[in-house]
Structures are given as structure tokens and as C-alpha cells.
């Protein structure tokens, strides 16, 4: 078996801990690339995405970019979409990404938007 990268080890550690404490709540999953940030609220029991937002959305894409402000806008949008789908409590899945910068900005904005985690 190949040795896992530090990112893959962090991601595995985070997901394992989330499964232990989730209590079957939906998961707010975050993916960050060099240019964009993506967020999804996923119901793992049904295997369905309940809400999603990213910087690829047309009205977010033009004015911001790969910044904390763009991540905050995505956090607000995913919180609004999740609330519209009837979800208020989630567990935050940062994947293998450290909780600072754009990931933290997205999480803080999602909390302000009404999601509890």
C-alpha cells in the first residue's frame, strides 16, 4: 500500500472523526482550489447533495476571485440554500484543508447565515 500524503492523512482523520460525532446530520463539505472554493451540504445516508454553492456561480465569479470575501459569499449562499432545503444543523467537513483563511471565512459566513455546527 502506498504511503498517504499529509493532505490525504488529514482528510482521512477529519472524516473518521466526523462520522463518530455526526449523529446522522448532513455534512457541509468544503473544497478549495487555487482559484475557486466549493461548498456542498450532503446527506450521506441518502447519498444526495441538498445544497451547493461555489465561486463558479455567475454573480459571484465576476466581482471577487480566490479571496476570503468570495469564500464568505459562498458561505452565505450555501447557508441560504441549505435553510431553503430545511437543513439548519450540519457537521463541518474541512477535508484535508487547514481551518484558516478562505475555509474559515466560509465557515464563519455559513454560521452567520443560519447554519449551526
From TrEMBL:
Keyword list, A-Z: Ribonucleoprotein, Ribosomal protein, RNA-binding, rRNA-binding
Family annotation (InterPro entries): Ribosomal_L18 (IPR057268), Ribosomal_uL18_bac-type (IPR004389), Ribosomal_uL18_bac/plant/anim (IPR005484)
CDD domains: Ribosomal_L18_L5e
Signal peptide (UniProt feature, chain positions): none
Domain of life: Bacteria
Entry GO terms, CC: ribosome
Pfam families from the UniProt entry: Ribosomal_L18p (PF00861)
Subunit relationships: Part of the 50S ribosomal subunit; part of the 5S rRNA/L5/L18/L25 subcomplex. Contacts the 5S and 23S rRNAs.
Annotated function: This is one of the proteins that bind and probably mediate the attachment of the 5S RNA into the large ribosomal subunit, where it forms part of the central protuberance.
Family: Belongs to the universal ribosomal protein uL18 family.
Protein name: Large ribosomal subunit protein uL18
Organism: Sphingobium tyrosinilyticum
Gene for this chain: rplR
